[in-house]
Each structure stands twice: as structure tokens, then as C-alpha cells.
Amino acid sequence: MVLAKQHAGTVTAVLNAVNAYAEWAPVTDLAKYGLIHGCGSLLSYSDFRLHACEFFKVICQRKRPVDVAVAEYDAAMCNIFQVLMNISQQFLTRSGMQPSSIDESEYEFATCVCETMVSLGSSNMQCILPDGTRTFQFLQQMLEYYQHYKIALHFQSLLFWLVVLREPSKAKSVARVSGDNSAAGNSASTGDLSAEKEKKGVSVFVTDEIYSTILDVSFKRMLKNSGNVSSGLLELWSEELEGKSDFCNYRTKLLDLIKVIASQRPVIAAASIVQRINVVFGDANQATKSPQDLDAMEGAQLGLEAVVSAIFDGSVDYGKADWEMKSQLHKIFEVIHGRYLDALGPFLRHYPDAVASVVNKLFELLTSLPITFQDPSNNSRLARLQICSSFIRISRAADKALLPHMKNIADTMAYLQGEGRLLRGEHNHLCEAFLVMASSAGIQQQQEVLAWLLEPLNKIWTQVEWQTAYLSDPTGLTNMFADSQFMWSIYHTVTFFEKALKRSGTKKSSATPQAPTTTAAPGYLHPMSSHLAWILPPLLRLLRCIHALWAEPFAQSQTAEIKAAKSMTVAEQASLLGETGKLTKGQVAPADGLLDVQRDGESKENNIKNWLRGIRDSGYNVLGLAATLGEAFFRCAEASSVTLALMENVQVMEFRHLRQLIHLVIIPFVKYCPADLWQVWLVNLLQPVFVHCQQALHYSWSSLLHEGRAKVPDSIGNLSGSELKVEVMEEKLLRDLTREVCSVLWALASPALNSGLPSLEQLGASNRMDSLKNLESFASSSLTGFLMLHVGTALPALRISVEVFSWTDSDAVTKVIPFCGALIHLAVASNQAELRQFVAKDLFSSIIQGLSAESNSVMSAELVGLCREIYVYLSDRDPAPRQVLLSLPHIKQEDLLAFDDSLSKTASPKEQKQHMRSLLLLATGNKLRALAAQKTTNVITNVTTRNRSSTAYHGSSAEEDGQIGLATLSST
């Protein structure tokens, strides 16, 4: 070895060659020719140990082949086990006795050794299982790595324990819920195991002590080193760690391991988590909790949820567990701290007699925490809100177990509210829990609960005085900003309407678009139907005033604070940039329920900013959720009032607000409006939306493609950082709105709303002109057909449907494809010449242009299918499809004739699509990148490759030549 050190370069080169052999050479040959022994001897030398460890890492990933003698392979692997365990034990001993003497290079090597042992144990444990002593020693070393101070070593060991502890449940051999006793304690001392025991796997050697140790470490490491948490004896996860998955993935693995153990050893897991909770929670009556305490509480709560779900709602059949184990679990969970009882819904379903003590404990905890507006960290208010949220989660998970306790909860709420010890946001959470409880008892119970909860709000909400003072015009609304307490009272009223609509009624099986007719069963009346008449009018006036804040002349006459408040919140900026950092003071969005009045030290600007965002989001949600009631909403609400409130100032809306309006209101209106009310509702709503969006999107996309920067109307606000961040946010806003507008087109074309459109197969390829119908005949059974009758609404929608193919956003293209398909069906089935010309020329050209973008490769088959439908079903009635193809740069007349001949010989849509694909590639000289072979390419669709010159945009619009399609349609 002295000679080896003198020729370090030669030894390293030899190791590199050996490592290459290790990837394919038989393990038995590597042992036979002494390579395993040689590399093992190099593990003790700092110059060569990493290269030598790489050799073992490659081998340890190998699995026992079927074409060699098992004994020879197992002997070689046993030798590797011993080599690695020897070098590993040396490190673990030094690390335990003299941790300060170990430098970073040794930790790097130890991590490599640990990673190699994980691969070895995960793939080849069967090789040493007959040797009980060696197996137990190996598990003890992996346990030491799991407990190690260094998180890199702990993380590698985590992967091992996940693999080996999952095996019993897969093999259904050892772990059962019927008991926690393990034979491993005795088996560790045995020299050999029978073949039958080998089949049972590693679990035979895992003692209760090992299970408890793993759980104890897992609960402690549930925290992240964010500056609030003291690492103590453990190096906690931090963002500086490289080469690992992110913290959420890491913690998910921890929770998976906890669930595996809980399913195999439920009593041990229950006792461990309760012990952890008792340690981190401390005194429930302690009013002030440090950030470190709160982080530890969060980790313990996640651990509790994992344990409870694995035992009571997991793969184990708890109902078949023995009485002794059930009794143990009952006693353990009954004494747990109430702070974590929101995770115990499954437990309460099995033990409804424990509900009363749970409810009492939650109220005790709530009243033990003070109400304070001067706490800049919001720790106390966050804790109070968490307790109130626990009622919601318990109500949802415990099903009917809480019904007998509703009266007691209501009385306690009234008492606390009367004493001023319950904030409005907290009250809303408790009321929401009531709605969840009532939903399990039926519609009648819901109606009674809603009447009780909404009656006090009705009296305030319908008062003329506040509406006259604050909602007559935008100036009145700005006067409300001076009364912070009333302002937030209005906010909580609106948010409770939203929650009432979400939590009441029958459960929906899916969120698919509904048919144009009423979806409710005969005689069914939604519990909220009777309340819409008084809820909606003030809400619409409120939204109208908010929208007007962005319009002239009110926009210029506002104070500096209000102008600044109209810009984005920091939370919105972070969301657009993909940043998930913790918000600081003044950046909390109102949806978290923390805001009731302006807090001490918070700027008025942030107070107004959060209120505007919260009212807009919840107000839109109320309208969208009300639309799902179908006829109960659309026949009682005034369409003119809704249209005025939403559309009066749509042209001055920022993209983020317009996207929210479309997503939360317009799309539900399209989905749920009865067919006989389309004229009353949808025309007046869709026309201003489409007109404005088409113009705004065209301008912004042209700017992005020409100049490299999207020009959007949104007020970004103060943004620390480079101009690049602003550009990223602007492009994200543009793409989000584009996709949402295309989602409207997708909804318009949904099959449920177009049941009257015949399939192309029904129409036949050679449909006769005298069999075609007027467009009016489709107006009552096809929303797309109805839309085409209203040129003012249809024209901007059609422009969007062709322009989207020139915008570099594949998600938007995906959403617009069904609308294009519906247009083709209408053009084929109707005698509308303008629509046929638009589809045959403009749409056909645009789809082909869309195939030139590589980002559209994912839906290239659908786009080719649309091209095939246009050509097959319209080329005999209109010359435009052939003209479009002949205008492509590399096509010849004989190519088109050959294509026609090929189509005539097959009726298979699949074969016709293949012919169309081949023709398009030929006609464009293989320039359609979406049609190129992209089987393994990951396409990123939300990033633009931008050329900063003015020549970045190519392609002509559909209107530049001739008077076919859009141009003729606009003149009718």
C-alpha cells in the first residue's frame, strides 16, 4: 500500500477502470479475481476511499441474478456487507466519542458509505438474513445513522428504513394489527435462521425498541431549521442542503415511515406521539408561545395525523383488532392534549363518547389564549384560529358524532361572543363547523342552522343606512376605509356567505359541466335559495364600487394610500414569482381569518390592500357558487344588476382581477345557466368580456412577441429586485389570463351544453347542401350555436380562437381545442356560409401555424385531427381548405391529388389523420416542429424564448388577405 500511495494517479486510474467493470461484470467474478478485497483495503486510505466506495456503490445496486449459483453470489455479498460494516463501525465509534475530531471530508466519505449500505440493504438483505447476528448488527448501524447528528447521514438511512419496513405489509407475513410483540429480541442472538424465517424478511429482527427509536427521531426531525428552531443535538433540515429533495418531500417520507410503523405497531406509535406532544406542548394555560414552540407543535400535529390515519383509516382493519389493543389505544388517545384533537376525527367516529371531552378541551384552550392586536408575530391569534379550525376538521371527519353536542357548542359560542372573547373571524370558523355538522343530518337540519346563523347577518346586511353611506358611489366606499372595524365586519359577512354556500346543500359527485337544464332533483330546494334575495343586492353594489376604484374620474382623486393599496400584495407577487417564503408583517392575506380590525403597527395601505383582495375574491366566489344552484339563482336574481356590477368597468380591470372574475364567476355562469335564459344572462356578460379580452390579449401578446416584454395593466407595486422579476410577473399574468379566457371557450363547447350538435360520423363526409340546417335550429340545444347567432359576442371569441395558435402557450391551445371542434361541427352541419368560410380558411390556417410551435407537440394529434375534419368534411363545399394547403411552401398539385386519393381509399379516421400528418410535414418541408418525434422531450410551455429585436414575430394574421371568414362575418 505504501507503493500504491507513491503512485496515486495510477491507482486512481485503475479504480476508475474497475468501477466501469462493476456496472456489468458478474459479482462472482469480481470476488473471484480479488477486486472486492482490493477495493475494500483501499477504503482506509483518504486518497482513494471515495473512488473505492463508488465501486461498492455500483455493486450494491445489483440484485441476485437468476443464472448463477446463489451460494456464490450470497458469499460475495456477505463479504461486501462485512467490509462496509467494518469501515462504518469505525466512523460511528469515532463520531460518537469524538465528534469534533471529524472533518468535512470524513463526513463526505461517511455519507458515501451510508448511501452504499442503503443500496446494499435495500437490494440484498436476503444474502445475510440467515446470519442473525450480522443482520442485527447491520440494522443497529443503520439505526445509528438514522439517529446521527448530521442530517445527510440520517436522510440516507431514512430511505433504507422506508424500504425494509414496508416489506412486511407487502408480503403479508409478519406485521399484524393483532399485537405488538416481536420475536426479534431473541432472534438477534441466533446464528442461523431457517429458510422459512428468511422469507419473512427483516421485520423478524426489528425490535420494539428500534420502532420506538425511529419514531422518536422522526418526530424530532419534523422541523425545519428556519431560524426559529434551535437545532439542539440534531442538524435540522435547511435550504443550504444540496443534492436532496426539498423539505416537503423529505417530510413526506418521514410521515410515510411513521404511517408504516403505526400500521404495524399501533400501540407503540400511539404512545410515542402522545409522549412527543406532551414534551412540545407544555402548559396549555401558558399564554405566550415562542416561535420554536409553535414550529414544534406543527411538527407534532403532523405526526399525530399520520399515526391516527394509519391506525383508524389506514390499510389495517381496525375493527378486527383484539380488545386489549383497542383498550390501550383508547386510554392513550383520551388523555392527549386538546391542541391536537383536530387530527382525531377518525378516532371520534369509533368513540363518540369521547366527543364531549374533546369539545370542552378545545374551548378551554381557546379561552386560555388572549386576544391581542399588538402581537406583531400573530402567534396567539394563529393559535386561536387553529383551535377554531379544529372544529371544522373534527366535524368533517367525525361525521354524526358531533350532532348531539351542537346545542352545547352554540351556547358556548354565544356566551364567548357576548363577553367579547370571540373574534368575528373565529366565530365564522365555528359557524362553518356547524354547517358541516348539519350537512350530515340532512337538508332540513341545514335550513334550520342557516336560519339561525344568517338571521343576525340579515339584519345588519340589509340596513339601508350603511349602503347609502358607503355604496352609493366609490367615494362613499373610500369613506368606509376610515372605519376599519366596520370594514372588516363587512368582509367577514361576505366570507361567511361564501362558506355557507360551500358547506350547504347536497354533496356534488363531480365538478363537470352541467346540462343547460336544472340539475336538481324534482322538488329539491337548496337551503341557501331563500337567502339569495337579500344577500345579492348589497353585494353587487359593493363589487360595483370596488371595480369603479380603477376607473376615471375616481382613480385620480384618491389618496396616495388608496392608490398604493390597489397594487399587488406581497403574497400575490410571491405567487407569481413562484416564491413560497414566509410572509412578514403587513403581508398576511385576509383569507387566513386573522384580520378583524387594523392591527397595531400595520399600515393603512396594507389594511385596505388586503381588504380589497379579500372582498373581491369572496364576492366573486359567492356569485359563482350561487350560480351552481341553477334555476334558484338565475330566475330570482336580476341579470341587469349582475351585468352592471361586473361589466361596467371591465375595460379598466387589471389582468389578475379579470382572471379571477372569469374563473370564479363567468365560467360557473356558463356552466349552470338554464338554456332558456342564455339570452338574458350570457350574451350581456360574454360580449364585453370577449371584446375587451381579445383586444387586451392581442396587444400584450404582440408586445411580448415583438419587444420581448408583455405589457399588462396590473400595478405591480414596490418590488425589490431586478427588472427581470417584473418581466416574469407580467408574462405570468398574461399567460394566466390567456388560459382563463380559453377556459371560457372550453366551457362553451362542453358536450353537456351542446347536446344538439350531431357527430361528424352522423353527418357523413358527403353531406348534401339541401340537408343542412339553419344556425338558429341549434340555438336552443347548443351553446356554441347560440353564441354564433350573436355576432358582437361571436366575433371576438372567433378572433381569440385563431390568434391563440400564434401565442406561445400550449396550455391555452389545449383549452381552445374543444371550441374549435364545436365550430367545425357547426360549420359542417349548418348552412351558415360565413362560419364555414371562417373554419375552412382562417381556423385551418391558424391550426397549421400552431403546429409549427414545438410547445404544441403534446396535443399535436388533436390538432391534426381538427385539420383532418376540416378538410374531409368541408373541402367538397368550399375551396379554402385546398387553397390553404396549396399555399404551403413545399407542396405540389400532384401531392394534393395523391392525398385525396389516399383519403378516398380509407374511412378510418386514424388512417386519415396519419395521411394528413404526412402531407403537412411534406408541404412545410418538415418545419412543423410539433409533429417531429418528441417522445421523450419534456416541453416547457410557460417560458418564452424571446428575441429582443423587433423581428421576433413571424406569420400573418387571418385577416390580411382576402375577404373570407372573419372579415365577411364582421360585415354581416
TrEMBL record:
Task: Pinpoint the Exportin-5 C-terminal domain residues.
Answer: 104-935
Q: Taking every annotated instance into account, which residue ranges of this chain make up the domain Exportin-1/Importin-beta-like? A: 6-55
What the entry lists under Pfam families is as follows: Exportin-5 (PF19273), Xpo1 (PF08389)
- Classification via InterPro entries: ARM-like (IPR011989), ARM-type_fold (IPR016024), Exportin-1/Importin-b-like (IPR013598), Exportin-5_C (IPR045478), XPO1/5 (IPR045065)
Membrane-spanning ranges: none
Q: Which Gene3D superfamilies match?
A: Leucine-rich Repeat Variant
PANTHER family from the xrefs?
EXPORTIN 1/5, EXPORTIN-5
This chain belongs to which protein, by name? Protein HASTY 1
